[in-house]
Amino acid sequence: MSATSTESRREAELQILRERARKLAQVPATEAERDAMQEIVRFRLGENMYAIEAHYVFATRWLHELTPVPGAPPAFLGITPHHGGVLPVVALDVLFGHASLGLRDLHRVLVIGDGTGELGLAAGKDIEMAWLAEGELLPAVDVGDSGSGSIVAGMTEDGLTLLDGAAFLADPRLIHGSPRTREASAAASDEGE
Q1: pTM of the predicted model as reported, rounded to 2 decimal places
Q2: Which residues are paired to 132 by β-bridges?
Q3: 38-192: what CATH class?
Q4: Distance CA 50, CA 116 (A)
Q5: Are 44 and 53 a contacting pair, CB within 8 Å?
Q6: Would you kindly state where each structural domain of the chain is located, as residue ranges?
Q7: Confidence band (pLDDT; 50, 70, 90) for 34?
Q8: Cα 43 from Cα 21, distance rounded (Å)
Q9: Residue 107 in contact with residue 123, Cβ under 8 Å?
Q10: Residue 166: which residues within 8 A CB-CB, separation 6 or more?
């Protein structure tokens, strides 16, 4: 690779970073504007953009190690070490009834929770903080064939799907031992035979 192409690629990357920094630095000017906006964490998963309210996100981390859990529902990718314990990691695409992206495209984990426990949400490389104006959110629609509408707060015109953090964390498909989790585990076991 020539020095010129390396320099131009590096300059393009710096321009992207500058633009992201500029967008993140934009804070709503008035208190009324702040009240009409919510801070979100936006992330890419395959070709789709998703977001969750920022107050549910405790951390982001690289997905270095993942151990599958035998008998777990298909949406559970496995567990990863986290602060001396383990963090269950969920595949949002599978939860929405889509084909799994596989681990190749999953580089990061959003550590989400509501103070009662934590859950890892697999994501791609692109994770950023953003503001979402109340008027930008359109009504929720089911984004798959799995009844996912219950965990979707809404969508924007540009295709961003905003997750309902409370509904996501309370989803019975993610609670070990719930009837829906047992059904999903049994179905996965049947497919593997």
Answers
A1: 0.70
A2: 38
A3: mainly beta
A4: 23
A5: no
A6: 38-192
A7: low
A8: 16
A9: yes
A10: 114
